[in-house]
Design a protein that fits this description.
Length: about 280
Amino acid sequence: MMRLRIEHATGFSYQGDVGASYNEARMLPSSTDAQFVLSAQLDIEPSTSVNYYTDYFGTRVAAFDVLAPHHALDITARSLVEVRPRPIDFTEIGWKRLHREAARSIQTVEMLGQSARTEPHPEVAEIARSIVAHHDDPGRAALAIATAIGDAVEYMPGITGVHSTGAEAWVERKGVCQDIAHITLGALREVGIPARYVSGYLHPSPHPEVGVPVTGESHAWVEWFTGEWQGFDPTNNVEIGDRHVLVGRGRDYNDVPPLRGVYAGPFKSELHVKVTITREA
């Protein structure tokens, strides 16, 4: 088990005064069976009231409006979380039983349909189908598919953008964690395995020193349902460990952006993001 302190500072600078802005932030983790939130708070400048709620997919959301004129918006999420590893547990379930169980729940049915971001490239669909042909166990097939995608796509920032699709990233064979998660989701859903997008944070060091703050970033991985929900990080080809802090889940990135909003004012704005992660214990 690891105790991690996370500070996620983000926001916008505007070219002139903004009359009003309306925003949603998904930056604070919630307690689950694998992580316990010791503290979590959101600081906003200009100061305003915040309405907290849990969205349809179970993600903690902070909704807030800034109605006074402002030329910048700064949001800082601070949290302290105890995290334990979540190794994959292979359940004894066959394909027929998986299809029956997946059809019984809205939670799984909604994670079977493709979105514009996850619709797989034909080569990805063929890889998934060929792997399934050699596996009677859906859970081991899912792991093999996720590992194959992680091996095939190189992590490289700057090649894709925030609006890129998994199919576009596959053509380049390069992208960031968001892209690799989308490609993996498309492959899993192609063969009838419910799969969902997970957003959160990852301490970048495999063996972090206690008390040393490091520069981190938001991270994305996947979970699939094969009798139970199991998580895997295809970007690093590792199981979900005590360096992964979960924030939100959804069908794809569109359901869990760290910050989303609209404003009335100058056309151009500049986004800034800084994530600092410190191992406390």
